[in-house]
Design goal:
By secondary structure, the chain is α+β, with helices and mostly antiparallel strands. About 65% of the residues lie in helices and about 10% in strands.
Length: about 300
């Protein structure tokens, strides 16, 4: 096994109520923020104007963004492989499609030495947005149901599967809270980040659970709290190495990946941290708490 830290003997189970309280406060903050500020939903969910343009010469996305921002337009920009075509997306009502499209055309004309042709202007309606919202929620719920079934089958205990899902729900909700507090836009790319966070979170949890199961076979008479602490401490070095690797990679994307994936990278940064936190301080202690509930 990979080692980075000296052998540790941290009593994680003993501190469980401290971290249950911290998570409760974060959850309460998220509920308040979502109730008051809500989420800044992107065009995929709210509807808006879509304009597709093709330039005569190659042009950088940063140049397009700068020209649009100079005209006071905040747009999502999508490139197409094998050409100089771009799809520009701006939130707005159906009535403002032509006005918004004309404003974007005027802004792009300010780019020197490169003419363009407008290939398409269209409106992404709220019906599509509602459909995308339903599919996004369905995808999240279906993935969580599958995780419960998988973990329950693998460890022959539905409590372990439920604890794992509680942990990933915690991680996804913290990421959603961070998006709400910072006012960042949530689109389908960010939804993909939420699903990635869920997968990353449960993967880390399964590693700890697997070690717990192995130690239960090796030390059948060991107290559950002691067994959980030993399992977490044994995996701590691996967990830190894996987390740092992912965190540094996502941090590079966040700092240098450009505007298009900045929100995705931000959500992943939060999820990387909370994924480890929930595995150590939420999921495993929940298993202990359930095993020692009043009967």
């Amino acid at each position: 096994m990979m080692t980075l830290l000296p052998k540790t003997h941290i009593d994680f189970v003993k501190k469980r109520f401290i971290f249950f309280t911290i998570s409760g406060l974060v959850t309460l903050t998220g509920i308040i923020s979502l109730s008051t500020k809500g989420l800044d939903l992107g065009l995929d969910f709210t509807g808006g104007t879509l304009v597709q343009v093709k330039f005569e010469k190659p042009v950088e996305i940063s140049v397009l963004r700068k020209a649009l921002e100079a005209a006071g337009i905040e747009a999502g920009i999508q490139t197409f492989t094998g050409g100089n075509s771009f799809a520009l997306k701006v939130k707005g009502a159906l009535q403002s499609v032509n006005e918004t499209a004309d404003k974007m055309d005027a802004a792009l004309k300010a780019i020197p030495g490169n003419s363009f042709a407008e290939e398409k202007r269209d409106y992404v309606g709220p019906v599509v947005g509602r459909d995308l919202s339903k599919k996004a929620i369905f995808a999240i719920l279906l993935s969580m149901f599958g995780i419960i079934v998988y973990v329950a089958f693998r460890f022959s205990n539905p409590v372990w599967g439920t604890a794992g899902v509680i942990g990933l729900l915690h991680d996804v909700f913290v990421a959603i809270t961070a998006m709400s507090l910072t006012g960042r836009e949530v689109d389908l790319v960010v939804v993909a980040a939420f699903l990635t966070i869920a997968g990353y979170s449960i993967n880390d949890t399964i590693v700890i659970f697997d070690r717990m199961r192995e130690n239960m076979r090796n030390f059948p008479k060991m107290h559950m709290g002691q067994l959980i602490n030993m399992s977490i401490n044994e995996c701590l070095s691996r967990t830190i190495i894996t987390t740092l690797t992912v965190f540094v990679t996502v941090l590079v994307l966040f700092l240098f990946g450009g505007t298009g994936i900045n929100n995705f990278a931000f959500a992943m940064l939060i999820g990387t941290i909370t994924g480890v936190y929930s595995t150590i301080f939420i999921c495993s202690p929940i298993v202990f708490q359930w095993e020692h509930r009043p009967k």
